[in-house]
């Protein structure tokens, strides 16, 4: 089945948006793991009631702010902030930018953002991996402690 040009455009936008969603999910996972580790370390001495679920409905900007406070990766935070601006363009203006006054896809305008859509997808993949790599610096401690008999974290 051949995909028409409108469908192809919307598919490219959807693929870029999916990458953005994966970055948000990776940030949420990082935050959850970090808060679980903090709870394990301070929970016996100080009530610690923060949990990853507290950030389930947070905006990308809020997730980046929390990630910034729970990590030591200023370059990654800088890249995430730049990515947020591209994600906002994609989420709020990309489609309308590519529609003519009758609401039909303007193929010249759509073609003009193809490189931008591809760049967003590529950057989303890179950021997702970089966030995972940051989490891997401490996440193993959670699993090691579980294997050593420490109870799993609870809110």
**Mean residue pLDDT:** 88
* DSSP helix fraction: over 70%
> What overall form do the CA principal axes indicate?
elongated
How many β-strand runs?
A: 0
Coarse structural class = mainly alpha
The percent range for strand residues is: under 5%
Low-confidence stretches: none
Which descriptors would you attach to this protein?
mainly alpha, elongated
Summarize this, please?
By secondary structure, the chain is mainly α. It has helices at residues 5-42, 60-70, 74-92, 94-97, 107-112, 114-136, 139-147. The chain is elongated, with a radius of gyration of 20 Å.
Structural notes for this entry:
By secondary structure, the protein is mostly helical. It has one domain. 71% of the residues lie in helices and 0% in strands. The protein is built from seven helices and no strands. Helix 1 packs parallel to helix 6 (114-136). The protein is elongated. The model has no long low-confidence stretch (mean pLDDT 88).
């Amino acid at each position: 089945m051949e995909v028409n040009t409108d469908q192809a455009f919307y598919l490219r936008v959807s693929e870029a948006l999916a990458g953005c969603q994966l970055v948000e999910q990776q940030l949420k996972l990082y935050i959850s793991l970090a808060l679980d580790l903090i709870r394990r370390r301070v929970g016996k001495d100080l009530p610690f009631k923060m949990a990853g679920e507290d950030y389930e409905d947070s905006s990308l900007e809020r997730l980046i702010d929390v990630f910034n406070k729970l990590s030591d990766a200023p370059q990654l935070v800088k890249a995430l902030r730049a990515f947020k601006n591209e994600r906002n363009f994609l989420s709020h203006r990309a489609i309308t930018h590519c529609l003519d006054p009758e609401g039909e896809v303007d193929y010249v305008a759509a073609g003009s953002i193809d490189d931008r859509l591809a760049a967003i997808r590529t950057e989303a993949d890179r950021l997702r991996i970089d966030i995972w790599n940051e989490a891997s610096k401490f996440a193993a401690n959670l699993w090691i402690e579980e294997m050593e008999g420490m109870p799993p974290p609870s809110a």
